[in-house]
Write a structure and sequence with these properties.
Largest sheet: none
Number of strands: 0
Radius of gyration: 23 Å
Order of helices and strands: HH
Number of domains: 1
């Protein structure tokens, strides 16, 4: 049933995209590039944030290990 809902969701998105392409005409490529670029910026920012969190956790673990070694 879950697969059917995914299929239905993707079909709705496809119909919306086709409708927008018909309405926008020549401007469609510009809007598509804008949407893809915005999505890429968001994804790259999220990946950078996850990487920063991982680095901070690793540094905190190393600091606590060094503190235990001193004791």
């Amino acid at each position: 049933m879950r697969t059917f809902f995914y299929f239905l969701l993707y079909m709705i998105i496809a119909v919306a995209v086709i409708f927008l392409a018909a309405v926008l005409g020549a401007h469609g490529a510009w809007y598509f590039a804008w949407l893809v670029g915005t999505a890429m910026i968001v994804l790259i920012s999220a990946a950078g944030g996850a990487l920063l969190d991982t680095q901070e956790e690793h540094a905190a673990e190393q600091a606590s290990a060094a503190e235990r070694d001193r004791s």
